[in-house]
Backbone:
């Protein structure tokens, strides 16, 4: 690297003052300053571009390793899923695997029975026996029906 100290800068300034002259020296110094600024910006841009390309390469490598790991996980899941399917097929195949103590003809698979839930019936979180014990209303009434229910009877 170029090592320029204060003494070398003073020597360069004195030579420039003698060669260029005192009239043109400020304009030349301004031009040299702008050129140095442009050169520094250019070097900084090149450095940032190199850093970006290095980071991009690192990200590509990281992406490839992650994709490889994902493929390995996917393959292991597929192999375990296929093993599970084989085991499940063997466990649920009632015709080929009879019970040990029962004969092959006595293995009976129960028929499907619907759970019989009524989807129209709304079930609350509070049990019905608790509502009836504590006097919680279970049916909604309109305001007029409630007033008629609690109005004293008419005497004729």
Residues:
């Amino acid at each position: 690297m170029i090592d320029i100290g204060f003494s070398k800068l003073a020597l360069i300034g004195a030579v420039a003052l003698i060669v260029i002259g005192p009239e043109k020296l400020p304009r030349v110094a301004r031009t040299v300053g702008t050129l140095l600024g442009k050169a520094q910006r250019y070097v900084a841009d090149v450095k940032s571009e190199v850093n970006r390309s290095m980071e991009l390469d690192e990200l590509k490598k990281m992406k490839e390793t992650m994709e490889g790991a994902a493929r390995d996980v996917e393959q292991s899941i597929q192999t375990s899923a296929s093993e599970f399917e084989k085991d499940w097929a063997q466990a649920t195949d009632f015709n080929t695997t009879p019970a040990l103590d029962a004969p092959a003809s006595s293995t009976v698979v129960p028929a499907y029975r619907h759970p019989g839930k009524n989807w129209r019936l709304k079930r609350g979180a509070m049990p019905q026996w608790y509502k009836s014990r504590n006097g919680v209303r279970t049916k909604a009434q309109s305001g007029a029906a409630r007033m008629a229910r609690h109005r004293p009877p008419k005497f004729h």
About this structure: The chain has four helices and no strands. The chain has a mean pLDDT of 83. Residues 131 and 139 are 11 Å apart (CA to CA).
